[in-house]
């Protein structure tokens, strides 16, 4: 199983371009009492190497997530059969399209949406299928997920820094994506590690590109959209993988 850090073929720029307009909170900063400080070292390679990232679609609000999302049966069941081997399982605020009684997830770098009935045997079958070529069978419904995806850690119960900074960054992405008329899926994700690097932003593309940024503030959002979402350029000062 291959562990991925980043797409080495992508272009790299050292600094994030400054914003060209103010959405109303482009220059908003987290409150000083959070005591957010840039680490005295590069944050490059502070993200874990991943084989697969499985993102659970749910109708829960990130503000309702407990400190450990393993309290949710779907997360507990996935972790029980799939933890290790470079797999990461996360909750998201992305809404599922299937009826109650089914599990719906996104799998990267495959860029696939997978749906299966919520029973214990099917969790094992899903995790086993991840090691090969994900395809529809008698247990799994598999389709390509063809939209760029932006997920922001907003897991406030795990760490208040992610809750506060994540909300500022999420709101700015929402405004910029709307203004730029981009068809991008945007949501919150549960704890991914690295509270000190809040705001943590993941950008996953249909071609399998997986980018982790840290220390993101609202003023970085336009530059990220221009360089990484619309193009295939990484911003070194924010790059965690």
Automatic annotation (TrEMBL):
<protein>
    <recommendedName>
        <fullName>Altered inheritance of mitochondria protein 32</fullName>
    </recommendedName>
</protein>
<dbReference type="InterPro" id="IPR009737">
    <property type="entry name" value="Aim32/Apd1-like"/>
</dbReference>
<dbReference type="Pfam" id="PF06999">
    <property type="entry name" value="Suc_Fer-like"/>
</dbReference>
<dbReference type="InterPro" id="IPR036249">
    <property type="entry name" value="Thioredoxin-like_sf"/>
</dbReference>
<comment type="similarity">
    <text>Belongs to the AIM32 family.</text>
</comment>
């Amino acid at each position: 199983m291959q562990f991925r850090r980043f797409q080495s073929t992508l272009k790299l720029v050292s600094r994030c371009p400054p914003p060209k307009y103010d959405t109303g909170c482009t220059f908003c900063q987290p409150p000083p009492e959070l005591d957010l400080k840039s680490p005295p070292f590069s944050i490059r390679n502070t993200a874990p190497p991943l084989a697969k990232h499985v993102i659970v679609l749910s109708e829960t609000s990130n503000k309702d997530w407990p400190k450990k999302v393993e309290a949710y049966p779907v997360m507990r069941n996935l972790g029980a059969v799939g933890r290790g081997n470079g797999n990461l399982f996360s909750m998201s605020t992305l809404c599922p399209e299937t009826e109650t009684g089914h599990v719906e997830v996104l799998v990267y770098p495959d860029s696939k949406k997978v749906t299966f009935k919520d029973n214990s045997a099917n969790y094992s079958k899903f995790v086993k299928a991840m090691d090969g070529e994900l395809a529809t069978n008698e247990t799994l419904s598999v389709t390509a997920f063809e939209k760029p995806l932006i997920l922001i850690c907003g897991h406030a119960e795990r760490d208040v820094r992610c809750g506060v900074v994540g909300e500022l960054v999420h709101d700015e992405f929402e405004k910029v994506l709307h203004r730029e008329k981009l068809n991008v899926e945007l949501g919150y994700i549960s704890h991914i590690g690295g509270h000190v690097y809040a705001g943590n932003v993941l950008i996953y593309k249909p071609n399998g590109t997986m980018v982790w940024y840290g220390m993101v503030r609202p003023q970085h959002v336009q530059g990220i959209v221009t360089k990484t979402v619309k193009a295939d350029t990484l911003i070194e000062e924010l790059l965690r993988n």
